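Final report, results section. Input specification for complex C-07:
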Amino acid sequence: MMNMAQARHIAPNMPTRKVPAPRAARAISPKTVDTLVQIAVVALLAGIWEFSARFGALNPFLLPPLSVVLGRIWEDLLAGTVLVDLGLTLYRALLGFVIGAVIGIPAGILMARSAVMRWFLDPLVSIGFPMPKIAFLPIFILWFDIYDTSKIIMVSFSCFFPIVAATYAGCSGLDKWPIWSARSLGAKERELLWEVYLPMAMPQIITGLQVALPTGMITTIVTEMLMGGRGVGGSMIMAGRFADSVGVFAGIVQIIILGFVVVKSLEIVRRRLLIWHPESRR
Amino acid sequence: MSDTLAGRRRPPGFGYTLIELAFRFSPLLLLAFFWEFLGLSGIVSQQMLPGLGEVFSAFVQMLVNGDLLYNTARSVSRAAGGLAAAVIVGVVVGLMMAQFRIARLLVNPIVQIFYPMPKSALIPVVMIWLGLGDSSKILLIFLGCLLPVVVGTYNGARGVNPFLLWSAASLGASRFDVLREVVLRGAMPDIINGCRTALAFSFILMVSSEFVIATDGVGFMISSLGDGGQYPAMFAAIFFVAGIGFGADRLYAMFARRSLRWREA
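Structure output:
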């Protein structure tokens, strides 16, 4: 007691209580903690799925245990059917998407640049964009039979509208100054298109693509379910018809992975293509 | 309201005059002529492309005998049920995620995993869970529409200006009041956008689930007409469904504009 008081008296500036030294940068940032917690949540959910199914809290027909589902995928992977299914689904979705983009982007640019094209395409696009395109599937089946052609055409048809609408919106509201500057520096129309219009509209075009690709995947799966044949959708609906719930959930797991990979890849493409754009610098 | 150098004035309240409207939609008429020409000239067989008159008379017939309206009512009621549940649950979950870190940490990984999944893949799953009746389709539409609403609400609620939150709190609003009066309203534009996406999804899922598994509804009607070779009626039903989807989106856009009138610009 005495000592303390004396000490305080003698050296009033000395801190009586230990003040924590300024902390070094924390080894684990809050962001890492968040990520870890979220991974833990996923693991926990997987665990709940596995054990509630295994110990009879849930009917194993309605939700087969995760390990059984993964085992089925592994078996099919060894048999080669998983890769064939995934490959076919991906091929149909991507080819349809690319065709939709190859037609949609030029059409959008033309709509923004030419009054005649705008007159012709604007009502079609503004009516077609909000329609449930999938309803037209029986017409495509009627015209192109039930094989790959009609599936791919259906996918491109449903991808076309979001792409053309986004491209048109992106190309029509452009800032005039860069265009005027390029013109006054002697750029020709073709150079303007590649050097000015397209780069300026690029963020919106890619947004359109990012809307179209998941739509295309949805459409691909439905066409496969309806017309049969191989592909993840086709094998899932077959499994469903035969009440093979393990097969259905194996398909779902494959589709989740496929969708995740495809959507994330498009995000990476966006970041690469728009690396010059202010949005990448945030 | 005469024509001035500044350009023609539009009559207030109505976007287009009748003539402008006719001019705007004349390409559709052109397409219709082209359709008829293809059919009449015999380039494309009548089987593949029935004449517009036939399609129209099939439409009138279906309308009169009630098939079309009955099936549409069945489909739309399922879509509306699933969509309404998705909007309610989605807004609540999105707000919770924006307000509480725990909710965010719990729900975010699920959203991240399931958001990119093509929702039509759930059709066989709901078929296994709930069979072929109404409930499986309502569940499918609910699940498919949920995530766009959650993500829209979450983004909107996170983007609310913090000064508004602080002012409301300093004026004595409770946490719930702030949530209801400030966060919900601030997030409204994003919520409305998310719901528009969900509306489009609900139509896609409604039609496609009825194509695959159903005993009634417009999707079932279309596919059974197609299977029976009644192509004029099939075309009519398809255009009718497309028209309903289009009309729902237009109505929703009008509603969105009305309910966001308070926004500047």
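Chain A touches chain B through 58 residues (CB under 8 Å). The CA atoms of residues 236 and 248 of chain A lie 5 Å apart. This concludes the modelling results for the funded period.
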